Each structure stands twice: as structure tokens, then as C-alpha cells.
Amino acid sequence: MKRFLVIGLGRFGMSLAETLYAEGAEVIAVDERADKVEEIKERVSHAVQLDGMDGEALKSVGANDVDAAIIAIGENLEASVVTTVILRELGLSEIIVRAYTEREKRILHLVGASRVIFIEQEMGRRLGKTYSGNAILDYIELTPTHSIVQWEVPKNLIDVSLGELNVTEKWGLNLFAIKKADGASKNFAWRKEQDRLIFNPDDAYCIEEGDVLILVGKNKELTRFTDQKK
Amino acid sequence: MKRFLVIGLGRFGMSLAETLYAEGAEVIAVDERADKVEEIKERVSHAVQLDGMDGEALKSVGANDVDAAIIAIGENLEASVVTTVILRELGLSEIIVRAYTEREKRILHLVGASRVIFIEQEMGRRLGKTYSGNAILDYIELTPTHSIVQWEVPKNLIDVSLGELNVTEKWGLNLFAIKKADGASKNFAWRKEQDRLIFNPDDAYCIEEGDVLILVGKNKELTRFTDQKK
Ligand SMILES: Nc1ncnc2c1ncn2[C@@H]1O[C@H](COP(=O)(O)OP(=O)(O)OP(=O)(O)O)[C@@H](O)[C@H]1O
Ligand SMILES: Nc1ncnc2c1ncn2[C@@H]1O[C@H](COP(=O)(O)OP(=O)(O)OP(=O)(O)O)[C@@H](O)[C@H]1O
Predict the structure, then answer these.
(1) How remote is the CA of residue A53 from the centroid of ligand 1, in Å?
(2) What is the pLDDT of residues A125-165, one digit of tens each?
(3) Is there a contact between A124 and B14 if contact means CB atoms under 8 Å apart?
(4) Which stretch of A63-72, B102-111, B140-149 has the lowest confidence by average pLDDT?
(5) Residue, of B160 and A219, whose pLDDT is higher
(6) Residues 6+ apart with CB under 8 A from A36
(7) Which residues of chain B neighbour A125 with C-beta distances below 8 Å?
(8) Mutate to test the pocket of ligand 2, among B33, B51, B73, B86 (most ligand atoms within 8 A of CB)
(9) Is the CB of B55 under 6 A from ligand 2?
(10) Inter-chain CB proximity A140 and B141 less than 8 Å
(11) Tell me, what's the pLDDT at A229?
(12) Is the CB of B115 under 6 A from ligand 2?
């Protein structure tokens, strides 16, 4: 059972704390504002109003005993730095801190942060790749050269068989699975939730409207394929 | 060639605009601040200082001709609403707007935004799933019940063969590929960049330190497996 401390319950911190808890972790959520603490208390293990820079208060709620802490205070470098130092004094080694610039990152690492995250830049990169990617719904970078993408089939591919499409030999890609649209397909007897994914579909399978192909391969080849086929 | 308009070059907007351009799209990047425009101009097709609420100025830089616009203005609902309306007047239909609350989302949809995004909440959710997930480096949600995860092998699995691990029959998962750590493996002749991924590895393959397993399956089963195996 993993135990987390989240300091700062802005939109990011609150969403993070709730998600960790919903995923089965134990979560101590902390904010100096009473209204934030009140708002989240049913959705985490333990919500407490206190100042992240108050080492004694943190210790009293068991902060010294967590697997990792995430500092999600807003644009206040001093508070993030001091809180990092205090958590190090309490013996924590896994301290993830939200920051906004490269210089802040260097400073936080110097005072003991194990990881520094840039929320806005990260989302800009992710959405930039998604939107530029020709109906790519989501992508995961496997290596600097290879990715997995979820690609929505264009109208002109409906009724084309996988054998004709031939992603492997013609395009150098791996078709890992097909995700069916909700309630779709007259052809298969798999309309339940868990059957929406068809792993290793065979060459005779014919593409249907709303299908999402889960493709893997080199970034260049993925782009070339989705560019050609839109 | 996809063409985008990005209005607002804060950390999110700037990162988004640069990424779109780096991915091969044409990007018109707009901000009312000259320093932002100056900073990004080498990294997009066209950077212009102007007010997103100035319809004439937008038209003069070709804003009416883009495939999609992203409004990445900070916490200023009025500016986001007015800019959305102006873009609709210019004939755009794909207008993605950054917002911060559900009410703002409803308002923006009412005035014509096609998509509304919550950067902080989205990152909180993503990182919450990643951190709670037992050395899961990244995950992609395929359906509400199935995901793909990149999972770093724990020390106690080193030298275990895939046959012994038996993810498919014992755990109900699909091992889609193995990503090797940089410069790793004495056993294989594939140390070049593109060979870092082993697709459909066979049962005789023995796990090595730093390996990342790309696993797919039901969320419950992924959690159960990674929980057991850490
Ligand atoms: N020293 C501190 N101790 C505890 N909580 C703090 C401290 N300083 C700030 N906070 C809390 O951190 C939270 C996040 O800060 P703030 O709202 O300024 O950031 P934000 O950038 O708007 O957040 P987000 O972008 O995640 O919505 C606030 O709820 C605030 O009360
Ligand atoms: N009407 C407008 N027209 C053009 N640009 C605008 C307008 N209003 C604000 N901006 C620009 O939008 C950018 C983003 O706004 P701001 O910096 O307030 O948001 P932010 O929340 O700090 O951004 P981020 O979180 O992405 O760093 C700023 O560079 C600002 O100059």
C-alpha cells in the first residue's frame, strides 16, 4: 500500500490527491486553506489544514512516514524550496515538486527535490503531438524514435480488410489491437465492455466506422502512414 | 499540412505552439506581449503581437484560414469568451479553449468552443495514475477498463524468463514489447537506437536490469500484477 503526502490543493494538487486515493493509495492531503481541506476530505484518507513549512505539524500527521511527497503549491518558489528542505529534514527522499522554469528546477534539485515537474509545458508537448498527429487520439512515447498511437480510422478506410491495409509490410508498423466504438459492429459477438478491444486481429477483419487502431512503430513511419491515410 | 492558430503564449501556449511546429504543422502564434512574440518567433511559422479580441488583426494574419485554434490565455474568462466568439465569426469551427472550472466550460461551449481543456486537472489525473501504479512509467487508457502501461521490472525479476513469468496465462495480460535500457544487454546484438524495442519476445527471453515491459490488459489485472511483482 503506497502512502503519499500532497501539499497544496490547487486544481493540480487536488486532482492528483483524489486520483492517487481512487487508485488505492493512502493519501494525506494538506493545504493552508480550510475550504480546500473541507472540499477534499471525503476523497482522500486524511485531509488537514496546515502550513507546508511547519515541520512539527507535518510530522504530527505522519508526513515523515510516506513513500513520496508532492509539493503542488502555486507560483511561490520560496514556499516550495522551504517545504522541500523541511521534508528532507523529516527523512523523505522521494520529493516531487511542481515548478515553472529551468532555474527553479535547478534550485529545487540543489535543495533536495528528487523530481521537478512542469505541468503546463508537459501538457503543451502532449497536446501538440496529439493535435498535429492526424486523428491521433493519444500517444505514448516508447523511445525517442518509437511510439504507440491510438488512431481513429478515416472514412475512406471503412470496409478495407487488414490484409489489404497491410500495415506491417507496407508501412513498417505493428497493429497491436483494434478498439471498437461504443455499441458498434454488427459482425462480432463481443459488444460487452471488456470485448471492445480485439488483440492481434487477423487479415480478414474489415475496418468499421469508429474503429481506433492501436499502432506501434517508428515515429517517422507512424506519421507517414497517418498522413497518407487521412 | 495542418495549420494552427495559438492565442496566448504562457508556458502552456508556447510549449504547444512550438511542439505543433516541430511536428510539422504550420503555426501562427499570437500574444499581446511583444517579449513573448520575440521569444517564440524562430520556433513557429509566424509569430505576431496582437490582441486575441481584435478580429480584424486576426483576419489579417490568416486566422480565418486555419484548421484549428487553441486559446491559451490565462485565467481571464472574458477574454477567452470574447476570443472564442470572434473566431466563430471568422468562420472557425475547431476552437479549443483552456479553462479552469466546469462552469467556465459550460459557458465556453455555449458561445461556440468545440473543446475545453483543463490542464491542471488532467495532469493531476495522469500523474496520479502513474505514481500510484507501481513503477509504471507512463500509461495510456485504451478503454475505461483497459490500459497500456510501461512497467519497469523490479530487481527480483532479473534473470526470470518470460516463460516462467507467464503474463498471459497466469495474469491475463498481453506482453506487447520489451524496451531495453540504454546501452544494455549483453545477450542481444541490437544495441542501436532502433533496436531498443523487442516486439513479441519469446518465452526463452530472460529479463534484464532496466527492462521496461509494455503490458496491456484490464486495469484490475495490471494493478494486481504490478502490485504482486514489486
Ligand atoms: N505554505 C503552504 N502550505 C500549504 N498550502 C499552501 C501553501 N502555500 C500555498 N498553498 C496552497 O497551495 C494551493 C495551490 O496554490 P495556488 O492556488 O496558488 O496555485 P495554482 O497555480 O492556482 O494551482 P493550480 O494551477 O493547481 O490550480 C492553494 O490551495 C494554496 O492554499
Ligand atoms: N487578449 C489577449 N490576446 C493575446 N494574448 C493574450 C491576451 N490575454 C492574455 N494574453 C497572453 O496569454 C498568455 C498567457 O496568460 P498568462 O501568462 O496570464 O497565463 P498563465 O496561466 O500564466 O499561463 P501558463 O499557465 O500557460 O504559464 C500571456 O502571455 C498573455 O500575454
Answers:
(1) 13
(2) 889 988 886 666 666 777 777 788 888 898 889 999 999 99
(3) yes
(4) B140-149
(5) B160
(6) A9, A14
(7) 15-16, 19
(8) B73
(9) no
(10) no
(11) 74
(12) no
What's the pLDDT band for A187 if we cut at 50, 70, 90? very low
Q: How many CA atoms lie within 13 A of A24 on its CB side?
A: 12
Measured CA to CA in angstroms, residue B22 lies from A61, B42, B59, B218 at distances of 46, 11, 24, 35
- To test the ligand 2 pocket, which listed residue (B12, B14, B19, B31) has its Cβ within 8 A of the most ligand atoms? B31
Which cell goes with A152? 481513429
**Backbone phi, then psi, for B226, in 5-degree steps?**
-70, -30
Of the candidates A179, A178, A167, A177, the residue with the CA atom closest to the CA atom of residue A218: A167
CATH number of B3-119: 3.40.50.720
- Judge whether residue A194 has pLDDT over 60: no
The confidence score (pLDDT) of residue A20 equals 95
Percent helix / strand / coil, chain B, rounded to 5: 40, 25, 35
Residue with the nearest Cα to atom 30 of ligand 1? A8
B205: distance to nearest CA of chain A, Å?
A: 20
CATH superfamily of B128-228: Regulator of K+ conductance, C-terminal domain (3.30.70.1450)
Q: What is the pLDDT of residues A11-65, one digit of tens each?
A: 999 999 999 999 889 999 999 999 999 999 999 999 999 999 999 999 999 999 9
pLDDT at B147: 82
When scoring A11, A67, A198 by the number of chain B Cβ atoms within 10 A, the one with the most, hence best to mutate, is A11
Does the CB atom of residue A36 touch ligand 1 within 6 A? yes
Could you tell me the residue ranges of all domains in chain A? 3-117, 123-228
Inter-CA distances, A27 with A22, B48, B150, Å: 10, 45, 24
Give B229's pLDDT tier (boundaries 50, 70, 90).
confident
**Are B13 and A124 inside 8 Å of each other by CB?**
yes
Degrees (nearest 5) of the Cα angle B210, A176, B68?
100
A3-117: CATH number: 3.40.50.720
As its CATH architecture, domain A123-228 has: 2-Layer Sandwich (3.30)
Atom of ligand 2 nearest to the CA of B73: 12
